[in-house]
Structures
1.
Amino acid sequence: MDLSGKTALVTGAARRVGKAVALGLARRGADVVIHYNGSQEAAERTAAEIAGLGVEAVPLGADLRHAREIERLFLEIGERIGRLDVLVNSAASFRAARFEEISSEAWDEVMALNVRAPFLCSRLAASLMRRPSGKEDTGPDTGAIVNISDLSAYRPWPGYTHHGASKAALVHLTSSSALELAPDIRVNCVIPGAILPPPGVDLESEEWRRRGESVLLGRTGNGKHVADAVVSLIENDFITGAILPVDGGERLLK
Ligand SMILES: NC(=O)c1ccc[n+]([C@@H]2O[C@H](COP(=O)([O-])OP(=O)(O)OC[C@H]3O[C@@H](n4cnc5c(N)ncnc54)[C@H](OP(=O)(O)O)[C@@H]3O)[C@@H](O)[C@H]2O)c1
């Protein structure tokens, strides 16, 4: 898919990895819906930065744990923009809890945001992607979806049972939706490794530098590594159902 003139929705795009992906898509000429939940001001700043690249950027808020908010978000995209070509499911939680302390409410919340929201967004996006847009389309596909999982999908992390189960389910959702939405909508998944430190850990800290040493390539990555992978999966119209690690080879260790 040629991204120029297309419209992309990136969830959790106000900050960090989602922002890097939104900027990557905008640099290829796509208009971008900057979804946010709590970070409205950051979303507006990101939208202004993206608009500076000469494309349109629309910040829209929604708490993706709630199906009704997701429906409202897509209704708004349909009414205000009328089309969607690309969806990147990046918004997620990252919660640690000991196995025996995970309540059913906490389990449901993680699953709602990390798995059900990407499913509902993909389902609603598919109907917008299949709607005749009036803009000139090129290429065999009318839509591309990229899910962002992580390495807990491959191997359990102590203290992250519900998180890991959600990210593994997201990998399965990628395969299932690629199968079901073909041939006109492609669905792929990126599995980032150590890209940005979790809240409370500084990018320049000794702790984060040491984190890089646990990666096969001996260093951490950055948001552009993820954005470049997302862009290439969208642009290559013969790739669907692919699971692409962007982890400096970390999955091969341990
Ligand atoms: N950072 C890494 O090194 C790394 C590594 C592997 C995988 N990943 C994956 O890459 C993606 C982005 O990573 P990140 O580190 O940038 O993530 P993050 O900062 O933990 O969160 C991304 C966004 O999710 C949104 N979000 C949280 N709760 C939400 C809710 N209830 N409804 C809607 N949105 C909600 C937040 O939006 P607001 O700020 O607007 O509230 C937040 O900006 C995630 O899927 C993550 O699992 C990241």
2.
Amino acid sequence: MVSPSHPNATEIGRLDGKVVVVTGASKGIGKATASAFAAAGAKVVLAARTRETLEQVADDLSVGGVSNPDSILVVPTDVTDVDAVQRLIERTLHVYQRVDIFVNNAGIGHFGPVVDFAPDDWDTVLNSNLKAIYLCAKYALPSMLAQGGGQIINVLSIAAKVAFEASAAYCAAKAGALALTKVLASEVRQQNVRVTAVLPGSVHTPFWDDVPQHPDFDQMLKPEHVADTIISICQQPPGMVTEEIVVMPPLGIL
Ligand SMILES: NC(=O)c1ccc[n+]([C@@H]2O[C@H](COP(=O)([O-])OP(=O)(O)OC[C@H]3O[C@@H](n4cnc5c(N)ncnc54)[C@H](OP(=O)(O)O)[C@@H]3O)[C@@H](O)[C@H]2O)c1
């Protein structure tokens, strides 16, 4: 006999009607995550800087029958820009009236030894991978708190925990983002907001397009692996929270 507190298989699989914002939704992990949420029945807000690529993702989801066009919203957003982040939340609330899940996924890498690393690149990496998570959490949280709960998923990296040469800005940003995630989780857990850090190893995405020395693409995770991990976290029953999860290729750090 199934315990009354144990949801049945169909309840576990669906996220029908949940309003989910995914940043960096035009490519790689974000695109796969947006697609997985749409397939699970969620209303998905696609955010990244480039309107054309976001609209292509929205078209693919609609034409492919994964999602109803009314359940996909494109909001071009630079997540390092405070005004743009506020507009992202305002537009989401205007169209869907709530934010259930916010996936902080947008991020970039610039690589090189500290001695050669340009100060502007440092600011770009820190703003994109760290400050953006603070901004998005700050402006998404009021609606979650008002509606009685929500979920924030921060896509970080194993670089939050491991020192990779020529990656000081990226490692510092991801380590900072892990600290931010832990503080945030402790600040809002009493208000029923669940906060999770997802730390993937190498994933085969356009992230690596401009990195000359990269690991073997064939050995990397696929973006769908990370997307499936995020979906499964969001399908967990209310009585538990995954605070941190490391997802690695089978061969470990590549
Ligand atoms: N690929 C890996 O091996 C790997 C491993 C561990 C963790 N991660 C992390 O996973 C996340 C996604 O990476 P990915 O591999 O999917 O990268 P990706 O394929 O390069 O995609 C990055 C996405 O972020 C968006 N983006 C970048 N800067 C932005 C900004 N300022 N505002 C809004 N959107 C922005 C990009 O679109 P626009 O350029 O149009 O804005 C794009 O949609 C990142 O946080 C990355 O650090 C990646």
